[in-house]
Structure formats: structure tokens, C-alpha cells
Amino acid sequence: MKPANRNPNRSFRVAATMTLTMLSCTMGCSATQPTVQRDDVAVTHDVQARLARDAQERPLQIAVATKGGVVYLTGSVPTDSDRNSVERIARDTPGVREVENNVTFGGSPAGSQTISPHESGTSKHPLVPATAAAGTIVQ
User: Fold this and answer.
1) Which CATH code of 2.60.40, 1.10.3470, 3.30.1240, 3.30.300 fits the domain covering 40-138?
2) For the whole prediction, is pTM greater than 0.70?
């Protein structure tokens, strides 16, 4: 029997192909999703609807306002876990660029005001821009 002749070029090509495949998979998985451009009023209503669905088991009073894709959350919830959940729901909504979570837990926020949808898109809350699209969820 003849000894097997190994082709060093073939081994190099196989190793290079495997490396490139792994690199391309890694790059594809780490790509960020583009931000969807949406109207502030639509973003506010979408966040409100998502919070309402989540709050069916435990009613929460959270005010939602949006300005330039930045969602402003105010209100009070019973636990820090609820506060984090509210922020996560808002952050996962399409069109949201950033979330300003001013929700407190374990008590009512000092000087809090409710933002109602009847204020024609203006906010009287000190932490929300005056031209933010506003609304309220009261369950």
C-alpha cells in the first residue's frame, strides 16, 4: 500500500472555508435591527395597547407620551419588577428609539400628574416635553 499523500493546499482551503463560514454567521447574528420610523401618536397608542394587554392580570396606571421616538413613562407600580416590565414592553415596541422610565415603585411619585389624551398632544408633566404625543392607561 502506498502512504496517503496529503495535499496541504486542500487542508488550508478547508480551514479557510470553515473560518469564513463561522465569521459570516457571527456577523449576521450580531447585526442590529433597524429602527422603524413611526408617527409619535402611533407609537404612544401601540405602547398603551401593549401595556393594557400586559396589565390585564394586575392593573397599572402608567402615563405614556412620545416625542421623536422617545417614549416617556410616568406613574407608579407596586414593584421594581413591574417597573422593569413596563420599560421592557415600551422598549420592544416598533418605532421606539429610547425609553425615559420615570415610573416609581412601592409608592406614588411625588407631584405626579396624569397625562390624558384630551390634552391635544401637549404634556403638563415636568419630565415630558410639552409637544409629546400623550395618552394614559388606567385599568
Assistant:
1) 3.30.300
2) no
